[in-house]
Amino acid sequence: MGAAVVDPIKWRLIVDGLVERPISISLEQLKQMPQTHVTSFHECYGSPLAAPTKNVWRIGCVSWTGVPLRCLLSLTRPDLSIGTYVWSDGLDSGTFAGVQSDRYQKDLPIEKALSSEVLVAYEMNGKPLGKERGGPVRLVVPGWFGTNSTKWLCRLSVQDRRSPSPFTTVFYNETDPTDMTGKKIRPVWGVEPNSIVVRPRPDEFYERPGNIEVWGRAWGSEEIIRVEVCIGHGKTWTEAYVEPRKQFEWQLFRLTILFPDVGTYIISARATDRRGVQQPLTMRRNHVPSVRIHVGRSIY
User: Fold this and answer.
1) Gene Ontology cellular component (predicted)?
2) Are residues 29 and 77 in the same domain?
């Protein structure tokens, strides 16, 4: 499924379903509504066909401008006694992994849809959304994987059940790591604790032993309260400084470590969120990242 080509002049957003007053609004009407700004990390889940143990590492931090989804929903007077999900339709269509789809469709639980951070966005980093980024308008769901932030948005619909779309039933589901049987499947929604070592770079060379600053980024659907760094094979972890989170931004961590001897070292980092959920060592997409460096010993 490729990028949709959308005429901003003709574009309309329909909000309907289990509501008292369905609406259809233009881009200009949307921009006249009270806007808000949210800065959040944005992580691609990667191909749903890839092994669930594969790191993707496509992550950025983005400033979005738009209208809170709950403001649009309030205009329609949704029936919250039976409306439990909000379906979102994108204008992209085609075949994915042999499955034909007329539209890309996802869903959000109504509780998440009514959260203040969820936006119907028309700007990214202060500029109008381009075609490749899902413009002119896309959904933005901070803290959740990018697959839930529907691009080329054209419709929002309050419904009493989950969407039957292949992108909710066939693709973008994963094994629940909390299920000991390994049989329970859950939607790809919230991002579990994750981190990446930014410096040192992989295979970076240092001329002599001494102190080296290790720093990186950590993120997740919940605030990261602890990042630990290990030199070696996971036996001893040292707690790093972690910058408090602002909105849904990724968080800086840093730690200065003494490397006393010449040699090759493996640096690993693991994050823990405020619920106590910890980044796993192996077997998940968000498993602990590692970087190899060389002190006083060049690999070249």
Assistant:
1) mitochondrion
2) yes
